[in-house]
Amino acid sequence: MSATTATDGGGRTKRARQPMTVFGAIGLTLLAVNILLAVFGSFVAPNAPGSLIGGGAFAPAHDAALLGNDYLGRDLLSRLLHGAKYSLGVATAATLLGFLIGMTVGFSAAEIRGRYDTTVTWVIDILLSFPPILLALLVIAGLGSSLPVLIGTIAFIQCSRVARVSRSVAMGIAALEFVEVARARGESLFSILAREIFPSSMRPLAVEFGLRLSYAVLFMSSLSFLGLGIQPPNADWGSMVRENLPGIYYGAPAAIVPAVLIGLLVVGINLTVDWLSGGSDRHTSEELR
Amino acid sequence: MAPVLQIDDLKVEGRTPRGVWVPTVRGVSLQVHAGEVVALIGESGAGKTTVAMASLCYTRPGTRVVGGKVTLGGVDIFALDARARRAARGKDVAYVAQSAQAALNPAITIGEQVAEPMLLHGIATPEEARKRAAALLTRLDLPNPDEIARRYPHQTSGGQQQRVMAAMALTCTPKLLVLDEPTTALDVTTQIEVLKAIKDVIREHRSAAIYVSHDLAVVAQIADRIIVMRHGAMVEEGPTAEIIERPKQAYTQELIGAVKPRPAGGRGIAAAESAEKPLLETDTVAATFAKPKLFGSLGMEDNVLQDVTIDVRPREVVALVGESGSGKSTLARVIAGLHPSLSGQVRIGGKELAPRARKRDRDALRRIQVIFQSPDLSLNPEQRIEEAIGRPLELYFGLTGAKRAARVAELLTMVGLPADYAGRYPSELSGGQRQRVSIARAFGAQPDLVLCDEILSSLDTIVAAQVLELMRDLRAKHNVAYLFISHDLATVATIADRVVVLYAGRVAEIGPTASVFSPPHHPYTALLLSSVPALRQGWLEEVIATRPPTQAQTGTSVPKDIGCPFRTRCPMVVEGTCDRVAPPARRTPGGQVIYCHRELDELRAAQAKGGVLRA
Prior knowledge:
The complex is a heterodimer of chains A (about 290) and B (about 625).
Chain A: E1 5-7, E2 13-15, H1 22-44, H2 76-112, H3 114-128, H4 132-143, H5 147-174, H6 177-185, H7 189-225, H8 237-243, H9 257-277
Antiparallel strand pairs in A: 1-2
Chain B: E1 5-15, E2 21-32, E3 37-41, H1 48-54, E4 63-72, E5 75-76, H2 82-88, E6 93-96, H3 100-103, H4 110-120, H5 126-139, H6 145-150, H7 158-170, E7 176-180, H8 188-205, E8 208-213, H9 216-222, E9 225-230, E10 233-239, H10 240-245, H11 250-257, H12 271-274, E11 280-288, E12 303-312, E13 317-321, H13 328-336, E14 343-348, E15 351-352, H14 362-367, E16 368-371, H15 385-397, H16 401-414, H17 431-444, E17 449-453, H18 461-478, E18 481-485, H19 489-495, E19 498-503, E20 506-512, H20 513-516, H21 523-530, H22 539-546, E21 585-587, E22 593-595, H23 600-610
Parallel strand pairs in B: 3-8, 3-9, 6-7, 7-8, 13-18, 13-19, 16-17, 17-18
Antiparallel strand pairs in B: 1-2, 1-4, 4-5, 9-10, 11-12, 11-14, 14-15, 19-20, 20-22, 21-22
Helix pairs in contact in B: 4-5, 4-7, 7-8, 15-16, 15-17, 16-17, 17-18
C-alpha cells in the first residue's frame, strides 16, 4: 500500500503524482510561457499596438522594434505581446464555456437516460453534422464580430463535441456500483453528477479539454486569418499572419513569427495533454497484474 | 523419466505504479511429469498465475523474470528467441484462461478458432484440422459438435465457451497444458460438466497440466499433486490426498479449515418469530430489461422476474440462491429502487414503495441499504473513506463536522478497521477492508434491511470467512434483517434462516434453511445441492455416475411460458403437464413451499434413491 502513497505527517495521505517526462516538461514550459504572455504581455510591451515607430513597413529589427516592423511600420513585438491575450484568452474562455454546457448536457443524459437521452443524442448528431467553419461564418455574418460573439460561437461548436464525449465517459461511470449505491441512498441528480460522476471523469475529460483547447486556438486563428476574428486595430496572432503575409517577399520576420507562436502554443498544449494522459491508471489497485 | 516441465528457483518481480520493482515470486521450483496434473493453490496475489505464465515463457506487462530457469521438454525456454517462443506456444504448451468469453474472438466461428492453432503451426491441412476440431469438441461433451462449430462465441453458453477453450488448447496435443481458474466463473452445475470434460481429455492425451485455482474442493477432483503458495513462495507440496487429509503447514491447515462443509440441514427459525409481521414484502413482482416496443406489448417471454412473492421478517436472514441469470440481483435492484418493476408491489413495514429510489421518501430509503459484490467498484475512488461513510450520516441524520467524524470513527471501529483509515482513499485498502467500509456505510444509516448482493464472492476464502463472521455479529447487535444473495450454498446454510431458490426469474422453492437443504427438494434445488464440490477425491466421479443423463444437454434457452421453466433440465419432467400448466405450490410439514408438478412423496423417494444428496 505504501507503494502508491506518501504519508505526510498527520496520517493523511497524498495520491501518487504523474512522473515528469522530457516532453511533459517541454509542453508545460511552452504552456506556462504562453500563459505569462497572455496575462502580462500588454503590460511589458514597449510600444502601444497601434503606434508607428519609424523605419517603415517590414523594416528589419532595430532598437525600437526587436523583431522588426509590421506591414504598416508598427512594432511587431509589441503587437505580438498585445495579441497574446486574444489567442489564448478567447480559446480558453470558449473551451471553458463549451465544457460547462457540454458536460452538463452529456452527464445528465447519461444519468437520466430514456427519452431525454435520445433527444439529446439526436440534437448533438445534428449539430455535429454542420461543418464548424461554415457555422461560424453564418453566426458571425449575422451578429457581427465581437469578443462575446466569438467566444459564444466557438463554445457552441465545442459543446456538442464535449457533450458526446462526456456522455460516453459518464455512461461507463454511471454503471459502477458506487453510483448505484448513491442512487439507492436517494441522492439528488445534481449530487450524483457532481459528487460521484464528475470526479471520476476528470482524468479522461482533462485530456479532452487539452485537445479542445488547441483546436480552439487553431479555430480562432483561422477565423482571424479569414478576417472574421479579432478586428483592427486590435489583432491576435492569426490576424497578424494574414496582414503581414506580403512580408514573405521581403523576408520580414513579421510574416513568420506569429505563425510560429501559434504553432508553439498548440504543440505546448498537446505535449502537456500527452503527459497528463500517460498515467490514467492512477486508481487501479496496486495489485500487479 | 525427465519431467515435461521443470522450474528451478524462479524469481519474478513486478512493478508498482510508482515504478518500484518488488518481488512477486521468490524462488519457486517445481516439476510436472507427463500425465500429471499439478495444482497451484493460494490466495490472490500469491503468485500462482505468474508462475503458470512463466511456463508459457510469458511475463505480463509490468513483471520481469529476475532469476531461475524454466525447462520445457528439455529446452530452456528463457534462452529461446521470440520466434522460437512463439512456435512453442500453442504447440508445446497451451493455455486455458479463466474467462473464455474474453479469450475467444467474437468475430470468428468456433470451428475455425479451434482449428486455427493447427494451421498456424502447420501441422495439419485445413481439412484435417477441421476434422480434428470436430473430434475434440465431441470429446469435450459439447452437444451437436458440428452445429457448435458453426456458431460464434456469443451464441454459446459460458460453460460451452470454457470447453471450447480447452479444445483449442488441446488441438496441437501440447506437452503441457496451463489452466488458469478455468471453472471459477461458472455456476456449480456447469462447473461439474466442464471439470469432468477437462479431466477426461487430460487423462486421455496424457498431457502434463498445471491447474491454477483458489478452490481446494475443485482441485481435489482433478489434481495429482498440490502446491500451496503464499506471498510468492511455496508453502507446502504433496500428493492431493496428503495435502487435503494431512496438511503439515499451519497456512495449509488454515486454508482447509476455511473450506465450508457442504450444505445440509442448517439453522431454522423459531416459531414465535415467524408470527411477526413481515418487514419486507414483494408481491407478484415482474421486471424486464427489454425496452418498450413501438408496436405490440411486452410478453412474459421478455421478463427476467415473474410473479416473485417473498417476504423478509424483522431480524431475519433470507438467502436468495440460483444460477447466474436467475434474477437474484435484479430482484435486489427492484427492492432498492434501482430497477423499476413492471408490475407487482414492494412494501416495507406494510407501506408501498415507489418503483424508483428517487421517488421514495428519505426514511424508506434509510431503512433499506445495499452492499454490492465488488469491493473495487462499490467505493468512489475519488472520495476518502470519511466521505464514503459520512455521506449517508449527513443525508439521513444531518450529521456534519466533528459529530460526523466521531460517528465515522465509531463505525470504522465497529467493522474492525482502525479509525484513522477515515483519511485514506479506497485504493489504499485491500479488498476485504474495502468491503468492511461498504458494510460500515450501510450500517451508518441504521437500516432495518440490508441487501447483500454476493458480498463475499470477490474475496479470498479466509477473508470472506472473517467478513461473514462480522455480518453475523452486526446482525445480532443491530437487529437488522438481511436479504443475502449468494451462489454459494455452503455459506447460505451457515447464515440464512430461510432460503428462496430462484430459477429463470421465478421462485422454485422457498422455506426454512433446514427444510430446503434436506429432502424433499425441488428438482432444481436438488441439482444445485448435489453440484457443490466436496473436499475429497473421487467426488466428481460419484456425482457424474448418479446424475441422470438429461443433465448433459443443458441448453442455453429457458422456456418463459406458463409452464415450469425448469422442465428442459428436469430429470423428473412430466410430459404434457410441465410444459402446459404452471406448477402448483406444495407445502411440506417443514414449512417449505415447492413449486412442482410432482407429489412431495415422489420427490422424496427420487432424491433418497438418487443418492446424490449425501453430504
